[in-house]
Amino acid sequence: MARFVIRRLLQSAVVLLGVTLVVFLLLQLVPGDPVRVALGTRFDPQTYEALRARAGLDQPLVVQYFDYLRRALTGDLGVSFRSGRPVTSIVLERLPATLSLAVTAVLFALLIAVPLGILSAVRSGSFIDHAARVFSQFGVSVPDFWMGIMGILLFAGVLGWLPPSGYVALTEDPARWASHVALPAATVGLVTAAILTRFIRSSMLEVLAEDYVRTAEAKGLRTRTVVRRHVLRNALIPVVTVVAVQLASLLGGVIVIEVLFAWPGIGRLTYDAVQARDYPVLQGAVLLVAALFLLMNLLVDILYARLDPRITVE
């Protein structure tokens, strides 16, 4: 296991290196001068050249990239063109908001998808099965921003139960945090639940068709016992991958939802950085998202071996 983890960490480091190179090269193709955007419409040439030199933009591209890579290895992701603050501090400040939204949305999705997917598979062809399939198709097809707008109109505008936007830290006021996170988490969670419901249903149906399940039923075991002892553990193992990918995607920031609900997370930060041509912040946000994806993949591989002893990672 230790050798596997070390090997995956080395592979992840290579992937991150590739991500930094691709993002750096792509940013060079983005139109617009970030220094001019940062200075505004009125500035003198001396200030312009001084800021370019401070940001290292007067150096050749090869020098700029290796200088960024050298600083990134020490945790220094540069300084924001827009605010003049360290990028590392800006990204870490936004991470708790995105983390709370992502975890809440995934938990909300699991509360819906797991029982619905199991019931849909066990009672295939029933009303519950048809309802689950309609729900999953609806959740996948309808845009999340439309569901978010409808949620704001109903729960904030008509009923007045929840605030339409804004963010309060969990550590500051748990009750107010819960009221603010409810709408965006439910919006994102419904889409995630639709994806997970379809996947859980298909995985359950595949395991229910196995010979050992039919043998257990032939021995006279009740359906509930067969599902609990023989089906769930094997059927839910592939679901771990889907849940991890969904969580990693949400940790990267749901840009549309965060903008719609004025949620100060990584997605909103990325959106603002693109608008302001703030390259250091954009690079730092993308690097964080890539690291989170790689971390989730590593955790899933380790969890696989714990859930199923037949799976060896060596």
In short:
This protein is mainly α and 314 residues long. Helices cover 76% and strands 0% of the residues.
Let me know the largest β-sheet.
Answer: none
Helix content bin: over 70%
CATH-scheme architecture of the largest domain: Orthogonal Bundle
Q: What is the H-and-E element order? A: HHHHHHHHHHHHH
Q: Which segments are poorly predicted (pLDDT under 50) over 5 or more consecutive residues?
A: none
What structural category characterises the helix and strand content? mainly alpha
CATH level-1 class of the largest domain:
Mainly Alpha
| Annotated CATH homologous superfamily of the largest domain | MetI-like
Please work out how many helical segments DSSP would assign: 13
How many separate domains make up the residues? 2
Estimated share of beta-strand residues = under 5%
Distance between the termini: 6 Å
Membrane topology: Multi-pass membrane protein
Organism: Micromonospora radicis
Transmembrane segments: 99-122, 134-161, 181-200, 235-261, 281-300
GO biological process, one term: transmembrane transport
Q: Strands, helices and their partners?
A:
Blueprint lengths: L1 H26 L6 H6 L5 H11 L5 H12 L14 H36 L4 H15 L2 H15 L15 H35 L2 H8 L4 H29 L3 H6 L5 H10 L3 H29 L7
Helix pairs in contact: 1-13, 5-6, 5-8, 5-10, 5-13, 6-8, 7-8, 8-10, 9-10, 10-13, 12-13
What can you tell me about this protein's structure?
This protein has 314 residues and is mainly α. It folds into two domains: 2-87, no CATH class; 94-269 and 290-307, MetI-like fold (Orthogonal Bundle), CATH 1.10.3720.10. Helices cover 76% and strands 0% of the residues. It is built from 13 helices and no strands. It has helices at 2-27, 34-39, 45-55, 61-72, 87-122, 127-141, 144-158, 174-208, 211-218, 223-251, 255-260, 266-275, 279-307. The protein is globular and about 85 Å long. The model has no long low-confidence stretch (mean pLDDT 79). Keywords: Cell membrane, Membrane, Transmembrane, Transmembrane helix, Transport. The chain crosses the membrane at residues 99-122, 134-161, 181-200, 235-261, 281-300. It holds the Pfam family BPD_transp_1. This is ABC transporter permease. It is a multi-pass membrane protein.
